[in-house]
Write a structure and sequence with these properties.
Elements lengths: L2 E4 L4 H11 L5 E4 L16 H16 L2 E11 L20 H12 L8 E11 L5 E12 L15 E3 L4 E2 L5 H4 L4 H13 L5
Parallel strand pairs: 1-2, 1-3
Antiparallel strand pairs: 3-4, 4-5, 5-6, 6-7
Length: 198
């Protein structure tokens, strides 16, 4: 059991990661809680590349184990967009309303059955000794053009889960944490930590 720093300033991500990894680390701190001011440029072409860029930077700065995730939405009729640009799809980083409005406009011409999509998450855990563990997870759904629910964050109000009959934003947090792309990525990471195949 050791200290882990989450290389993120996103409160939604931090909350989910802490809930899922709490049994595995003695102390889990966000960047703000650790007093770290880090904002690495996400120049990677994949979610995994971006996750590793951020985790390595924080690990170097702090000398502690660091975990970063990069995640986003891939919509099939948009050829995988917004992809790694999910957080800044509308041109402004972290503007959930702007991103969702652009997404709705982009898919509105397609019938719902063609608006298949998935949340994808890659996580990277870096240790001061140079070890790195990388894992990925995904969650399948459909994009709706009318939002529903006030939980979650990002595209959650528009990401519909047919098998659940609701959007991601309508799920209680404890349920979402067993279904989300981040949960599956972290579960695969834990398998690596336990020494088993991901």
């Amino acid at each position: 059991m050791q200290k882990l720093i989450i290389a993120s300033n996103n409160p939604g991500k931090i909350r989910e990661i802490k809930q899922i990894l709490a049994p595995y680390f003695a102390h889990i701190l966000s960047l703000a809680e650790a007093g770290v001011d880090a904002d690495a440029d996400e120049t990677g072409q994949t979610f995994a590349e971006n996750a590793c860029i951020k985790a390595r930077a924080v690990c170097r700065m702090t000398g502690c184990a660091a975990l970063s995730d990069d995640s986003g939405l891939e919509v099939d009729v948009l050829a995988g967009a917004p992809g790694v640009y999910s957080a800044r799809y509308c041109g402004r980083h972290g503007d959930d309303d702007g991103n969702n409005q652009k997404l709705v406009r982009a898919v509105a011409a397609y019938p719902e059955e063609q608006r298949t999509a998935r949340y994808v998450c890659a996580v990277c855990l870096c240790y001061p000794d140079g070890r790195e563990l990388v894992a990925q997870g995904s969650c399948e759904g459909v994009i709706r053009t009318r939002g529903a629910g006030d939980g979650g964050f990002g595209y959650d109000p528009y990401f519909y889960l047919p098998e659940r009959g609701c959007t991601m934003a309508q799920l209680p947090a404890d349920v979402k944490n067993t279904l989300s792309h981040r949960y599956f990525a972290l579960r695969n990471l834990l398998r690596l930590l336990d020494g088993s195949d991901a």
